[in-house]
Amino acid sequence: MKRTIAVVSAGLRRPSSTRLLADRLAASAERELRESGDEVETRVIEVREHGHDLVDNLVSGYPGSKLQDALETVIGADGLIAVTPTLAATNSGLFKTFFEVLDLLDDHALADKPVLIGATGGTARHSLMLENAVRPLFTYLRGVVVPTSVFAAPEDWGGAAAPDLLAQRIDRAAAQFATEIGRRGARGAHDLFAPTPFADLLGGG
Question: Are 10 and 96 a contacting pair, CB within 8 Å?
């Protein structure tokens, strides 16, 4: 079965440790799915590339073409990997705005969709931000957030044992994510502005 993974990375710079973590999570998830016999396509969305369009959408109610493509990629994906930098001890505003806009345009966008969450930050003391801020966000949006979240502080990238410990957390989270995807049928492409069939309008009352 062909599977699509949407990867949303909200790093503010290039190169970005947030994107690096997102790529590693995606690579591990791809490996898990391929071992189960699935074909996998991964599509990466860099939120910072859509910053102006996100603000415009909040004002006008309509996304630009590039933002619309990004949002439809998330909606049509079989699973979502979402990674944010930690700013002021919480997720970035740009990250949250992306999913607020998604919810405004389609409040079923993430319903029953497997979600793997991750974050990067300057200190491991902020790692609970994932449980206090990010997990509740996706639970509210009705995504199925896998039990293991992955936080990477600077010390997780270096040191004798740190890379192995980070890799273990990544692989555990990716295995849970792939299992959730495997329990569901493949999703199709989605058009945010496709007209509602007349029969459905009549059926709605």
Answer: no
* Helix and strand counts by DSSP (H, E) for the chain: 8, 7
Let me know the angle formed at the C-alpha of 15 by 101 and 22, rounded to the nearest 5 degrees.
55
Select from 183, 185, 186, 138 the least CA-distant residue to 41. 186
Burial class (CB in 10 A: 0-12, 13-18, 19+), 184: middle
Using alpha carbons, select from 149, 65, 53, 40 the residue that is nearest to residue 101: 53
Element holding 170 (H helix, E strand): helix 162-182
Which residues make beta-bridge pairs with 6? Answer: 43, 80
* Cβ contact 43:6 at 8 Å: yes
Q: Is the pLDDT of residue 12 over 60?
A: yes
pLDDT (tens digit per residue) in 34-46: 999 999 999 999 9
Residues in the chain: 205
In the chain, what is the straight-line distance between the N-terminal and C-terminal CA atoms, in Å?
37
CA distance 44 to 60: 26
CA distances from 39 to 4, 6, 34, 115, 164 (A): 8, 14, 6, 19, 27
**pTM, rounded to two decimals:** 0.90
Q: Which amino acid is at 194?
A: A
